[in-house]
Design goal:
The complex is a heterodimer of chains A (486) and B (490).
Chain A (H helix, E strand, L loop, with lengths): L4 H18 L4 H27 L5 E8 L2 E6 L2 H27 L5 H20 L3 H19 L5 H33 L16 H14 L11 H4 L5 H28 L1 H6 L5 H20 L3 H22 L2 H32 L10 H4 L1 H15 L6 H14 L3 H18 L1 H8 L16 H19 L1 H9 L4
Antiparallel strand pairs in A: 1-2
Helix pairs in contact in A: 1-2, 1-4, 2-3, 3-4, 3-9, 3-13, 3-19, 4-5, 4-9, 5-6, 5-9, 6-7, 7-9, 9-12, 9-13, 11-12, 11-17, 12-13, 12-17, 13-15, 13-16, 13-19, 13-20, 15-17, 15-18, 15-19, 16-17
Chain B lengths: L5 H19 L2 H29 L2 E4 L10 E4 L1 H28 L5 H20 L3 H20 L5 H31 L4 H11 L3 H17 L8 H8 L2 H34 L2 H21 L4 H21 L3 H32 L10 H4 L1 H15 L5 H15 L3 H27 L4 H4 L6 H19 L2 H16 L1
Antiparallel strand pairs in B: 1-2
Helix pairs in contact in B: 1-2, 1-4, 2-3, 2-4, 3-4, 3-10, 3-13, 3-19, 4-5, 4-10, 5-6, 5-10, 6-8, 6-9, 7-10, 8-10, 9-10, 9-12, 10-12, 10-13, 11-12, 11-17, 12-13, 12-16, 12-17, 13-15, 13-16, 13-19, 13-20, 15-17, 15-19, 16-17, 16-19
The chains are: A mainly alpha (486), B mainly alpha (490).
């Protein structure tokens, strides 16, 4: 179905960016423009949902760069889900940013909001891409547009981090991902995403394995070890950036791309047919899950701890994709949504603590729950969702990921999942426990309630509620994702 | 009437315009004459290309002397394309040159500068259009000698050394070329390329022909700065006047590479070349160039030298495409030849504009310049992205086809080397961008203003073309595919 509205989804955030630049001198109008485009974008994306649920695939062709490979878009369930997550959380993050950026007295706010909008446009482009080249183009734009956000503070540390960020993301994408895309093109004669994949019968097991590795490592945004260093480095960015981009848009664009490549380029059937040759890649993902958790336990800086937790959680999705069983893929898709809501909440909380009390280290958080009860309660909820406890959305994705490992008979991976859940209990739960159970340093409990500015609190409440609500409304996403596996 | 003489006019107009500049002696008018001649060449090349695309190759016989005896100018897809690139680059560089040359060349020599420029242009266009091996040598010398002059006009004393070095190596190259032509003439008794091709094919394996091939190949390799015969290039580009660097970067090596294609495929033929060690040798030098020259580029402190080494690396890419000896590979090289001309000239023009304002091309001296010259620096970034090969720029399209052609031929290490070099390109482009955008401005920079409009226009004309041809790729891809098919098919 030809749907020019897809262009609108891309153009809206870009127009938003332009508007932000124009309105730079009037902060209130500027933020209103951001919010308005965010809301409109979300409605546009939402309007596509019924058609996709009905099995339709809205598509549109932008321009033909390489004769056989146009820049083209096609909405399928995975992309639908990712676009919904990114666009809905953009609104919430904008609300949060208003409180955070002003409360924290950040400079260059116009550039910040403009780059943010461009990043969202490229995330939407990644979500709707209908072939590997289009995906690659928007993947690179996403990297470049987030660079000014990472180096926002302009300090030497930020610049160093920015160099790691660009180096790893651009480097892996050019050296491995582009190579893999070209190889696919030469093997299959096309780079389009088709259900069932395009490589079956065209790539022998060895080529398939090498290609898979090139994609998994070439999509550096998925942060599979050893190419994960950019993510902790990116934490020098202002918290809203870490929250939306480095817990949702950028990293999820990475795992989304891995998932999409597995489902639509390799095809689960083809991967299953070549058997265990991809086993070592799964092992790399498993190691990343465990090592990420272990490193997270040892980090005292709150944002660094959350970043390593993200590294670990992203590899859940990579693992689910590589196992390539029906439930594994569904679980991986679901985890994109569930982890997004939980992790963005955690980052929001970390930023709120920074704005309200200027604390960045876990060890400084003793007793802070009494001053920030809403924030730390939301932190608890989101932590439990990451751990995967019932009544929270995170439970479902873990459930299906676990089913996926059982389905393919890989019980050692099931053990990895369970062990990692335990580890996440160990690195996340001590934080709310400290905050509520321990006395404040200096013993003065009389400082009363001092939360972050209200837009921050509002955003935190919204996303934490999201974690709870998603537990009850997971079925719809489940049905959408089961289209993937027939 | 005029249309039928276009192939000759491509050479004649700049050749006649050159002495006119000497006689006029007035710098502003000399510039206008040079610009008019370049624009004429652009129009002529465009008409020739359109004619070739619709009606096939055409021959023109100088003085109406028929082919094997008289000199033939033969226009096909390949050289019409190369002429278009050369003349466009000349015109855009001239737009930039007017203000830049006023600053960098002594006033009473400016008309001579444009004379040399026009001679160089005539030589380059002549090398492209002629189908006579000895005539190629004549034009090669015309363009080379005028290039030595242009380089030596640089403001710094090192320019003289750089020009001398270029002169020595260039003369060695030209002599090798002449020896090759002489040997061929001795064996076949003809100088016309089409005629040579038939007779070489009839001769079969022949030691003199092989020797001639060796001399010709080395001679052309020196002129096109094929690694490791590139040593003249970085300094020549670094110390030449800014406008000359821009002009040469987009034209001189490109035409020499065209000669390589012409002699490999038209004169000696695919079978002759494929039988020998040539593909492997070319591939080795290509890989060495893309990797070693890129690494060398990262280590430069002078932005113009950096771009010079980057040019050597990019020539490596072109050589790699040719070394595959496939239609895809040659087409990819022709696409990248066009893309590289656009991006490298854009970069040299931007640097030239910066040099115009701050008087230095050292990367450290440019710290923080983006605040003062936002338009120029933005164009610099676009050119840099194209050089890296970021999607939606002309550079991406060329690299895409080069890597794809290498993969199709099964040359994995070559494909890997090309991507590796792209990574290194990220590093050296980043050096420029970081200095311009993310460092505190020096005192020298703080006093700078935006570049003159003509320079910004030239820079954005080229950078815009980089984006345009990164999105609408039908022209370069269409022409390159037809040209490659014609070269390898016939």
């Amino acid at each position: 179905m030809e749907t020019p509205a897809l262009f609108l989804c891309l153009a809206l955030p870009l127009a938003g960016a332009a508007l932000v630049l124009l309105l730079g001198r009037w902060p209130n109008l500027r933020e209103a423009a951001s919010l308005a485009t965010g809301g409109w974008l979300f409605l546009e994306v939402l309007a596509l949902l019924p058609a996709v649920e009905a099995g339709d695939r809205p598509r549109a062709v932008l321009v033909s760069v390489i004769p056989e490979i146009p820049l083209a878009f096609e909405v399928e369930p995975l992309g639908m889900l990712f676009a919904l997550v990114a666009s809905s959380l953009w609104i919430v993050t904008t609300i949060y940013s208003i409180g955070y950026m002003r409360g924290h007295g950040e400079t260059n706010q116009t550039r910040f909001y403009a780059c943010f909008a461009i990043a969202i446009a490229s995330a939407i482009g990644v979500a709707f891409a209908s072939n590997l080249l289009t995906l690659f183009v928007f993947y690179e734009v996403l990297t470049l547009s987030t660079y000014p956000l990472v180096t926002h503070s302009g300090t030497d540390e930020a610049r160093r981090a920015g160099r790691v960020y660009l180096g790893v993301l651009l480097g892996t994408s050019i050296a491995f991902q582009l190579f893999a895309i070209l190889w696919v093109w030469v093997l299959a004669g096309e780079t389009g995403f088709r259900s069932g994949g395009i490589l079956a019968g065209r790539a022998d097991p060895l080529a398939t394995t090498i290609l898979l590795a090139l994609f998994v490592f070439g999509i550096g945004k998925a942060a599979v070890m050893p190419f994960h260093r950019w993510l902790p480095a990116a934490m020098v960015a202002p918290t809203p950036v870490s929250a939306l981009l480095h817990a949702v848009a950028v990293v999820k664009a990475g795992v989304f791309a891995v998932l999409k490549v597995v489902v639509y380029v390799f095809g689960p059937g083809h991967l299953a047919a070549i058997g265990g040759t991809s086993g070592w890649l799964i092992a790399v993902a498993a190691v990343t899950i465990l090592a990420g958790s272990l490193v997270a336990m040892r980090r005292d800086n709150l944002k660094a701890r959350l970043a390593y937790s993200t590294v670990s959680q992203l590899s859940y999705i990579v693992m689910g994709a590589l196992v390539a069983s029906v439930w594994g893929i569904v679980g991986a898709g679901l985890h994109i949504v569930m982890h997004a809501f939980a992790k963005i909440t955690l980052f929001f909380c970390a930023g709120a603590v920074l704005v309200a009390h200027h604390r960045t280290e876990v060890s400084e958080l003793d007793g802070i729950g009494r001053a920030m009860p809403i924030t730390m309660a939301a932190f608890l909820v989101a932590s439990l969702s990451i751990v995967g406890l019932p009544l929270l959305g995170g439970m479902w994705s873990k459930w299906y990921l676990a089913l996926g490992t059982i389905e393919s008979g890989r019980y050692e991976l099931l053990a990895v999942l369970m062990l990692s859940s335990l580890l996440s209990v160990a690195y996340l739960l001590p934080i709310p426990v400290r905050a509520f159970a321990r006395p404040s340093p200096g013993g003065g409990s009389g400082e009363g309630i001092r939360e972050a500015p209200w837009p921050c609190v509002l955003a935190i409440v919204l996303t934490a509620t999201g974690c709870l609500v998603l537990f009850w409304f997971a079925e719809r996403w489940l049905r959408l994702l089961s289209q993937l596996t027939g | 009437m005029i249309a039928s003489h276009l192939p000759a006019l491509q050479v004649v107009v700049p050749l006649v315009a050159a002495p006119v500049c000497v006689l006029l002696r007035w710098s502003r008018v000399a510039w206008m004459v040079a610009m008019a001649a370049s624009l004429f060449a652009v129009g002529g090349a465009w008409c020739l290309l359109a004619g070739v695309l619709s009606a096939g190759p055409t021959s023109y016989f100088l003085g109406s002397w028929a082919a094997p005896w008289g000199i033939e100018y033969r226009v096909d897809e390949t050289n019409a394309w190369v002429m278009l690139v050369v003349s466009v680059i000349s015109a855009v560089s001239l737009l930039f040159a007017r203000r830049s040359v006023e600053r960098e060349v002594e006033t009473d020599r400016i008309h001579l500068f444009y004379t040399a420029w026009l001679l160089c242009l005539a030589g380059l266009l002549g090398m492209a259009v002629t189908a006579d091996a000895f005539n190629v040598f004549v034009f090669l010398e015309i363009s080379s000698l005028s290039t030595y002059v242009l380089v030596s006009l640089g403001t710094r004393r090192e320019a003289l050394v750089a020009a001398l070095r270029y002169l020595v190596l260039g003369t060695v190259g030209a002599t090798f070329f002449l020896i090759g032509v002489g040997l061929l003439y001795q064996v076949t008794g003809t100088l016309n390329m089409g005629d040579l091709a038939t007779r070489i094919a009839q001769l079969g394996p022949h030691r003199t022909v092989t020797a001639a091939f060796g001399f010709l190949a080395v001679g052309i390799a020196v002129k096109s700065a094929v690694y490791p015969l590139h040593t003249w290039l970085p300094n020549a580009y670094a110390f030449a006047p800014s406008a000359v660097s821009a002009f040469l970067a987009g034209t001189a090596t490109k035409v020499s590479l065209y000669l390589l294609l012409r002699f490999l495929f038209t004169v000696f033929g695919h079978e002759f070349v494929a039988g020998g060690p040539v593909p492997v040798l070319l591939a080795l030098t290509g890989v060495a160039a893309v990797v070693a020259a890129s690494v060398a580029a990262v280590r430069q402190d002078d932005a113009k030298r950096l771009l010079g080494f980057s040019s050597v690396a990019q020539i490596g890419y072109l050589v790699l495409g040719v070394s595959l000896l496939t239609t895809e590979g040659v087409a990819a090289s022709l696409i990248h030849l066009f893309g590289h001309a656009l991006m490298k000239t854009a970069l040299f023009v931007c640097l030239g504009a910066i040099v115009y304002r701050i008087g230095s091309a050292r990367i450290d001296d440019m710290a923080g310049i983006a605040k003062r010259m936002p338009w120029t620096c933005a164009a610099l970034v676009v050119g840099g992205l194209s050089l890296i090969g970021v999607p939606l720029t002309a550079g991406f399209v060329g690299k895409w086809y080069l890597v794809a052609a290498a993969l199709e031929a099964g040359w994995w290490p070559v494909a890997a080397a090309m991507l590796l070099a792209s990574l290194i390109a990220v590093a050296y482009v980043w050096k420029l961008v970081e200095s311009a955008y993310f460092r505190a401005p020096s005192a020298r920079v703080a006093a700078a203003r935006g570049a003159p409009f003509s320079m910004v226009a030239a820079a954005w004309g080229l950078s815009g073309a980089n984006i345009w041809f990164g999105i609408d790729t039908s022209l370069p891809i269409g022409v390159a595919n037809r040209a490659a098919a014609a070269l390898l098919g016939g």
